[in-house]
Amino acid sequence: MSLVDNATPHMAKDYDGVIRATIPFYDLMQSETMDLIETLKPDVACWLDTGCGTGHLVEMALPRFRDALFIMADPSEAMLAEAKRRFANIAPERLKFLPPIGSAAIAADILPCPPQVITAVLCHHYLDEAGRQRAVRSCFKVLARAGVFVQFENIDFEEASLNQNALERWAKYQKDQGRPPAQVESHVRRFGTGYFPITIDEHLELLRRTGFATAGMFWLSHMQAGFYAVK
Ligand SMILES: C[S@@+](CC[C@H](N)C(=O)[O-])C[C@H]1O[C@@H](n2cnc3c(N)ncnc32)[C@H](O)[C@@H]1O
């Protein structure tokens, strides 16, 4: 049984302190998302962040998208508690929390508005194939017409040597950031055990098969890829 209070290897209360030492260019992934949405949906009025974790993405987005209501969703109560602490001073017209819920269970009748943007950052790679399909399908269904879905995930390069090289680079990154070697080794062993990456082509194929009119990749660094799709 997992000793942590969410699907990541970090306790929710420790997440913000350790995530940048774990994921290379974490802040850049989020700011690139801001840039993408400022380009494609600058007037977004309703934005769902599923797998919101402690809420860093929405903290970045709140001052940049002043007309938007942000809906926060995550299956981990502990993560939602951290996010609620972060946003204690934000007006309820700007921010709504769903009860603990995974993406697959999100449906229109529990949302306060139809999202024109849905972000899912590093939160669907914990799912198996069927679970991932359900998660993406639910996001597609509740997304408004012409809405934009953004997803980041750890990916599989398909070729064993490419994965090995990428994992070694990732381990080096974490050690350079000061993470203890035993934690780094345990993190590297999560590939295919603690999270279940699929290839870039499989991502694009799933997005198209789900019904998105357009699907592309807009970010790749180390083993993290960012995709966006338009309904
Ligand atoms: C690595 S954290 C990412 C958090 C946040 N998006 C960020 O960028 O910092 C992964 C998050 O995914 C959530 N998660 C796990 N399974 C999920 C699912 N089925 N649907 C949505 N979120 C999920 C976890 O609770 C956790 O908060």
Provide a descriptive summary of the structure in words:
It is a single chain. The chain has 231 residues and is α/β, with parallel strands linked by helices. It has a single domain, classed as Vaccinia Virus protein VP39 (Rossmann fold, 3-Layer(aba) Sandwich), CATH 3.40.50. It is 40% helix and 17% strand. The chain has eight helices and seven strands. The chain has helices at residues 12-22, 26-40, 56-61, 77-86, 129-142, 160-176, 181-188, 200-210, and strands spanning 46-50, 69-73, 95-97, 117-121, 148-154, 214-221, 224-230. The protein has a seven-stranded mixed sheet with strand order 3-2-1-4-5-7-6, sandwiched between helices. Helix 6 runs antiparallel to helix 7 (181-188). The longest helix is centred in the C-terminal third of the chain and has 17 residues, at 160-176. The protein is globular and about 45 Å long. The termini are far apart. The chain binds S-adenosylmethionine.
Can you give keywords for this protein?
231 residues, alpha/beta, 40% helix, globular, binds S-adenosylmethionine
Helix and strand arrangement:
Layout: H1 12-22, H2 26-40, E1 46-50, H3 56-61, E2 69-73, H4 77-86, E3 95-97, E4 117-121, H5 129-142, E5 148-154, H6 160-176, H7 181-188, H8 200-210, E6 214-221, E7 224-230
Parallel strand pairs: 1-2, 1-4, 2-3, 4-5
Antiparallel strand pairs: 5-7, 6-7
The structure holds S-adenosylmethionine.
S-adenosylmethionine is lined by residues 6-8, 50-53, 56-57, 74-76, 79, 102-103, 121-123, 126-127, 135.
Strand order of the largest sheet: 3-2-1-4-5-7-6
- Proportion of residues in extended strands: 15-25%
In sequence order, what are the helices and strands, one letter per element? HHEHEHEEHEHHHEE
Poorly predicted ranges: none
CATH class: Alpha Beta
Total helical elements: 8
Query: Which whole number gives the mean pLDDT?
Result: 96
Rg from alpha-carbon coordinates: 17 Å
CATH superfamily annotation? Vaccinia Virus protein VP39
Gross CATH architecture: 3-Layer(aba) Sandwich
Percentage of residues in helical conformation: 25-40%
Per DSSP E runs of 2 or more residues, the count of β-strands stands at: 7
What count of domains describes the coordinates? 1
